[in-house]
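Aim 2 progress update. The chain analyzed this quarter is reproduced below.
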Amino acid sequence: MSSFSIRPQARVSEDAETSLPFDADHIENVAEALISGQKVDIEAQIPAPLRPAFQKIADAISRRDQQDLSRTVGFSMQASDAMAAVAKITGSVREVNDRASNMAAAIEELNASIGQISSAAQSSSEEMENAAMKSRESADTINDMQSASQQITETMSSMEERVNVLSRAAEQISEFVGSIEAIASQTNLLALNATIEAARAGDAGRGFAVVASEVKALSGQTQTATEDIQKHISQLSADMAELLGAVSQARGAVDQGEALSSQVSDKVNEVEGLVSGNAARMSELAGVLAEQTDATMELSENVSTVADYARSAADHANDVITSVGSSENLINEQFTQLDGRDICGFVRQRAKSDHFLWKKNLSEMLVGLNNLTESELVDHHSCRLGTWYDSTDNTNVRRHPAFAALKEPHKLVHDHGKRAAALYAAGDRVGAQAEVAKMEEASGKVVQLLDDLLKID
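Predicted structure tokens:
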């Protein structure tokens, strides 16, 4: 009830009422007391004719105080909500600023690395071009070696054919020598028979004997010569056979070398193709990296611009914080003035503002705008709402279902808030944010229940 309503008391007599002096100073003092919010017994201090007017004034002042309190609480809640939002924005902007600064530094390092890679790619491309040139030269050399091997093969084939011809000639000579040896043997046999016949003829056959003796000697020499020729031909045949074997082995080696040369030539040509392809790709990569360098430089400039905007936004956010802080001072002054008036539901109204201030302080803590600690946060019995909750004797309020329902969420507001401060102090920002979110949920229920309780006179 308003402090400006008429207090219950024993009614004075009509004579007493009319006997109250119409003292201007007294009435002015009573009016000033009403305006300042002091308790005034209108029936006892105001003459009867003026009491209805003064009661209207008292009721108007009471309504004004109620409206002022409601507006001030609304302003306070909005200011706290705005401050909490600005605090979150400030934290986000600072995070963007930090990340943009880190990103700009990382991009600069990336740009430098890309430049080094581009230079290395260009150098690798040039080296691969040189390697491709060397590979082509090696392929040409191998092709020349393969041609030489083919010529050697052809020469070996020609040599083999000539050795075979010589071998056949030696065989023919051997056959001729055999024929000569057979003739020599037959001649020697005829000479022996002629010698025998000459001996039988006596003196008449002596000349014939001399001829037979000469023929025998010539036959012996012929046989000796044929044996010697046969030995040389046998040695020649052996040498030619050995030569044929060597030529055959050499030809096999040359053929194998030619096949290997062909394989090596194919491999070298393949390598040359791969190296040339890689050289082209490395050159292309160097070009792409050069373009990427320009892109990353532009990106670095854009990120730096973002960081500048973030810093500017942070400065603007600080200006907003300052402005909101100034409005909070005005709101607190208004609360101080209203606190001296006996306004119905003052604590319940003020408790709504307190909860938004609680949320604001914790939001500021999360972004480093204050040094709030767990020990600074009271429990749910020691705050303004808790003290009222434990001591109110308003039976209408206590009987209301919202009063009983208020206890648990109010306790959760304080528990989660203190837990958030403890986690933040321990460096667990994520955990602290989760606790603040839980606190805000419980605080919303508290404010809703307080609105229900404010409907009670």
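Residues 345-457 form a domain with the Four Helix Bundle (Hemerythrin (Met), subunit A) fold (CATH 1.20.120). The radius of gyration is 64 Å. These observations will guide the mutagenesis experiments scheduled for the next reporting period.
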